[in-house]
Amino acid sequence: DPPHNLRVSAGTTIQFSCQAEFDPSISDDFEILWEKDGMALNGSENARYILDDGVLEIINVSFGDQGFYVCVARTPVDQDMAVAQLSVV
Predict the structure, then answer these.
(1) Which of 6, 14, 34, 86 could pair with 41 as two cysteines, CB 3.0-4.6 Å apart?
(2) In this structure, what DSSP letter does residue 76 have?
(3) What is the tens place of the pLDDT at every residue in 2-18?
(4) Is the dihedral of CA 44, 50, 31, 67 positive or negative?
(5) Predicted TM-score (pTM) of this structure
(6) Domain Ig-like: where (predicted)?
(7) What structural domains does the chain harbor?
């Protein structure tokens, strides 16, 4: 299932979920990556961003978190992506 657009108040915690089906025989080579506005997200760069098993959690959302989030499900032979927009009010 792709992530869904969200419209939230500043200061809340949100989750984008990205579920993908893949051949279990290549599970070691399957990964889900997240990007925001074209830049790769890395949980170690921002402590408010938690990436875990296809879920992106953003703690204490701020206006700077607004944008387009892309979920990339990737294997060595294929990849698929889905986009969701975060709006902060």
Answers:
(1) 34
(2) S
(3) 789 999 999 999 999 98
(4) negative
(5) 0.87
(6) 1-89
(7) 6-88 (2.60.40.10)
